[in-house]
Amino acid sequence: MGLFTKNPFGHNLFIKKWLIRILGGLSHRRFRGFNDLQIEGSEIIKDLPETNVLFISNHQTYFADVVAMFHVFNASLSGRDDNIKNVGYLWNPKLNMYYVAAKETMKSGLLPKILAYVGSISIERTWRSEGKDVNRQVKMSDISNISKALDDGWVITFPQGTTTPFKPIRKGTAHIIKRYKPIVVPIVIDGFRRSFDKKGLRIKKKNVYQSFEIKAPLKIDYDNETIAEIVEKIEYAIEQHPSFLKVISKEELAAQEELNKQREWLS
After folding, report:
1. How many other C-beta atoms are found inside a 10 Å radius of the C-beta of residue 221?
2. pTM to 2 decimals?
């Protein structure tokens, strides 16, 4: 890699490498110090091809989710199994890694702009803008940029397009899967909403159990499965199907009943 080598989006790779090193070093204790990120399935990362891989995940904060993925992916590629000990894995980070984010979010301040340089594919949301509901056409340039990123490497996307849990999967992700036929790797995260603020920049609570599960690539019949069928597969894979909400509700109800029993016993 030369000093002036750029990626397909015109970003200087030397600058990008140093940004990942610096930001990774500054953020490491958020997942390995203040909290202890529990990782499962990282061996899957090492067997993936260099390009045309799409990661799909549930979404809990604007930035901490993606930062954690950069840590876990690079640690796995450096030979670490299910851990991010010793931040030295960021010395030679994977540079062809991108993530889909709302353009308005990535322009909201200096730090988001720096994070955008690290690998954001900034798109205009078709359903939401500046806190208001909108209804506009998908920009073909946004689809083209996602295609360009898949051709160059790996892409992370949050198919619900929001940090609110159990919201519907956006069909755009299914269209991208059907059109470009990437390897689709699901990720399920938890604990980020409790430990960070909504942006994922400020630590809200320490010693929170954070989990990060990487699942086996989805089996998809790209030519014959419908958009609706792919959407349903995504819902189940990232555990955002309505049926999971029922399970969680039952668990929460049982926990509340147990708590009430303990209170009655103590009184």
Report:
1. 10
2. 0.87
